[in-house]
Amino acid sequence: MTAVSASDFKAHCLQYMDTVKKKHTIIIVRKNGEPVDKLVTFEEDMLKLFGRMEDSGVICGDII
């Protein structure tokens, strides 16, 4: 995990994005010494929240 200042992040944003993607690291962005943002690798699986249990159950008999 790496921490950078907001001004440094603004100047090198694309480089930090490439680094996070390639190395799967986390970058914390700080403003006035306080953490304000976290840059992490985007994972496609996290988007599928609804329908995750699809086809995992079986209906036996009448539902009513």
Strand content of the residues, in percent? 15-25%
Characterize the main sheet.
Answer: 3 strands, mixed
Rg measurement, Å: 20 Å
**If you average the pLDDT, what whole number results?**
88
CATH topology of the domain at 2-42: YefM-like fold
SSE order, one letter for each helix or strand? EHHEE
How many DSSP H or I helices?
Answer: 2
Strands, total number: 3
Trace the largest sheet across and list its strands.
1-2-3
Poorly predicted runs are none
CATH domain class of the domain at 2-42:
Alpha Beta
CATH 2nd-level architecture of the domain at 2-42: 3-Layer(aba) Sandwich
What global shape is seen? elongated
| Portion of residues within helices | 25-40%
Distance between the termini: 53 Å
CATH superfamily of the domain at 2-42: YefM-like domain
Question: What class, by secondary structure content?
Answer: alpha+beta
How would you describe this structure to a colleague?
It is a single chain. This protein has helices spanning 6-11, 13-23; strands at 2-5, 27-31, 34-39. The protein has 2 helices and 3 strands. The N and C termini lie far apart (53 Å). Helix content is 27%, strand content 23%. The model has no long low-confidence stretch (mean pLDDT 88). It has a domain at 2-42: 3-Layer(aba) Sandwich (YefM-like fold), CATH 3.40.1620. A 3-stranded mixed sheet has the order 1-2-3. The chain is an alpha+beta fold. The longest helix is centred in the N-terminal third of the chain and has 11 residues, at 13-23. It is elongated.
